[in-house]
Design brief:
single chain; alpha+beta
């Protein structure tokens, strides 16, 4: 049940490049304090 909730939330995630750090970041709307950063866009949304 929790896994399904997290998967649905990940579908709403937004990703974009952080230009001054040359990494990609992502966040889930309405989840305060939840964000991630990866070196390439292929890994965005995997973890």
């Amino acid at each position: 049940m929790l896994t399904e909730y997290i998967q649905k939330a990940m579908e709403l995630a937004h990703y974009g490049i952080i230009e001054d750090e040359e990494t990609y970041g992502g966040e889930i709307p309405n989840f305060q304090g939840i964000w991630g950063r990866v070196k390439n866009p292929e890994n965005a949304g995997k973890n």
